[in-house]
Design the sequence.
């Protein structure tokens, strides 16, 4: 069985745990080697210390078995409301984007969506949205055609309308997107090894992901 990358909730994980021995390790392709290995942790969106928030589950491909050992690597299963490698939750991102579409300036839309994040993050996150939009729309087109008459021809309006058409009953369409397509709403940005540590975007933090 193919292991999901995003799961809806802890309850979903417990269901998956019951059939973990049937799952394939995404690294070494062995079956029956994965074990539960704690939580993925990260900065909580509402502040607090590092590692305070559970953001998913971690599995370990056991290399301690005598017969057919696994590869010893770990695998992350993200909760679908989490945006991997970002502090903000997808519900906050959705509020931010719909605020911009409603006519708010980016910083104002961000303040309305998140009372705890620095407004400067608004521009960085919006750039990531711009970088991701064509891939998101291409994925959505596999599910439903784009709406024929979006309210505005702007790419953001077209993308949000397409998300709503694909997941009409979802409270947070990007969450539904991650769960359905099993891929991150934003792709991880590769950081050059030459970058000084201080230049690494503040959203990045030490969480394992399979990107
Ligand atoms: Zn493995």
Sequence:
């Amino acid at each position: 069985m193919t292991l999901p990358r995003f799961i809806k909730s802890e309850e979903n994980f417990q269901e998956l745990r019951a059939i973990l021995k049937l799952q394939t390790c995404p690294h070494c392709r062995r079956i029956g080697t994965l074990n539960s290995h704690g939580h993925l942790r990260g900065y909580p969106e509402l502040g607090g210390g590092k590692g305070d928030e559970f953001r998913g589950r971690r599995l370990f491909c056991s290399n301690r078995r005598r017969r057919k050992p696994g590869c010893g690597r770990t695998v992350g299963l993200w909760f679908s409301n989490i945006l991997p490698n970002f502090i903000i939750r997808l519900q906050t991102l959705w509020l931010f984007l719909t605020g911009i579409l409603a006519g708010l300036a980016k910083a104002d839309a961000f303040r309305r969506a998140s009372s705890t994040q620095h407004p400067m993050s608004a521009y960085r996150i919006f750039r990531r949205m711009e970088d991701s939009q064509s891939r998101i729309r291409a994925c959505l087109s596999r599910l439903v055609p784009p709406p024929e008459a979006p309210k505005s021809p702007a790419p953001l309006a077209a993308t949000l309308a397409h998300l709503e058409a694909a997941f009409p009953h979802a409270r947070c369409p990007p969450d539904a997107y991650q769960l359905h397509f099993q891929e991150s709403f934003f792709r991880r940005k590769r950081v050059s090894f030459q970058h000084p540590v201080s230049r690494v975007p503040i959203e990045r933090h030490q969480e394992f992901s399979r990107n």
Remarks:
- Residues 192-211 have pLDDT under 50 and may be disordered.
- The CA atoms of residues 63 and 71 lie 5 Å apart.
